From TrEMBL:
Superkingdom in the source lineage: Archaea
SMART domains registered for this protein in UniProt: HTH_ARSR
GO molecular function, one term: DNA-binding transcription factor activity
Organism: Stygiolobus caldivivus
Protein name: Transcriptional regulator
All copies of domain HTH arsR-type, residue ranges: 1-82
Length: 82
């Protein structure tokens, strides 16, 4: 992922919500449901932002009985200054 894509992501509406999701995922993998409850946002909203973060290569999905979202190594490197 290029810095240009990160800049694009930062300018899209909803960055504050995505930033909260990223901050929460720094603690470890979580489901969309867990994130929605923790951040007091609608489940559909959490899923939308997680899919966008995945599209930009900042979040991976780990599949098991549940889908867990986790930050990629690139996300940790690229977003440490934001």
């Amino acid at each position: 992922m290029s810095i240009t894509k990160v800049d694009e992501l930062l300018t899209l509406p909803g960055w504050e919500t995505r930033k909260k999701i990223i901050d929460s995922l720094q603690e470890g993998p979580k489901t969309a449901y867990e994130l929605s409850k923790e951040l007091n946002i609608n489940y559909s909203t959490a899923r939308y932002h997680l899919e966008l973060l995945q599209k930009f290569g900042l979040v991976n999905i780990r599949k098991g009985r549940k889908y867990y979202y986790e930050l990629t190594k690139n996300a940790k490197l690229l977003l440490r200054d934001y």
